[in-house]
């Protein structure tokens, strides 16, 4: 069982270090039911990829909003930024290995194009899926959906 709340706070702490003097603003909101049945290191790698991407593709001073919410269908983690955005024509291919949108726009940002392929596979391993919403110049939102069956009631240590 993974505690989403603790994990997201850790990742955002590291992401602030990555942002450094760029001074991105971080807004984090985690709902009350924040335990998920799943592989902790896989989930950490998926969520870090999304949150580090948000820093990488958002100019200095932009903001990054991370929200975990549950509803009757399950739970979802939204990672939203006010960054450069993505031309919607690229969206269907973004989770392919080595695919990078319009590389000319990324002269200064290194990367291999594997991050979102990892995210997709981690979500598949957890019966979930990735939703991507973006427009050029209007920021991006990546939403990780998990089914209700993945929500856990308590950490194993505290189970009676
Ligand atoms: P890597 O993650 O392997 O270091 P990468 O960041 O280029 O390299 P992905 O994380 O798979 O690779 O992302 C694929 C492409 O999707 C990126 O090259 C970029 O074009 C686009 N992208 C991903 N996240 C964002 C975002 N938050 N805003 C704008 N574009 C993004
Ligand atoms: Mg990346």
Automatic annotation (TrEMBL):
Domain Histidine kinase residues, every copy: 1-150
Task: Indicate where this protein resides in the cell.
Answer: Cell membrane
Functionally, this protein is described as follows: Member of the two-component regulatory system PhoR/PhoB involved in the phosphate regulon genes expression. PhoR may function as a membrane-associated protein kinase that phosphorylates PhoB in response to environmental signals.
- From the Swiss-Prot or TrEMBL record, give the protein name: Phosphate regulon sensor protein PhoR
């Amino acid at each position: 069982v993974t505690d989403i709340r603790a994990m997201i706070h850790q990742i955002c702490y590291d992401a602030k270090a990555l942002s450094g003097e760029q001074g991105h603003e971080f807004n984090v909101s985690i709902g009350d039911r924040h335990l998920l049945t799943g592989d902790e290191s896989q989930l950490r790698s998926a969520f870090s990829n999304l949150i580090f991407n948000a820093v990488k593709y958002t100019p200095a001073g932009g903001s990054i909003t991370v929200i975990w919410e549950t509803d009757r269908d399950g739970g979802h983690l939204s990672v939203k930024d006010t960054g450069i955005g993505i031309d919607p024509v690229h969206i269907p291919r973004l989770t392919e290995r080595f695919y990078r949108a319009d590389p000319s726009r990324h002269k200064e940002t290194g990367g291999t194009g594997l991050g979102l392929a990892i995210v997709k596979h981690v979500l598949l391993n957890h019966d979930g899926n990735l939703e991507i919403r973006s427009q050029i110049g209007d920021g991006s939102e990546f939403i990780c959906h998990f089914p209700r069956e993945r929500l856990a009631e308590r950490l194993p240590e505290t189970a009676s």
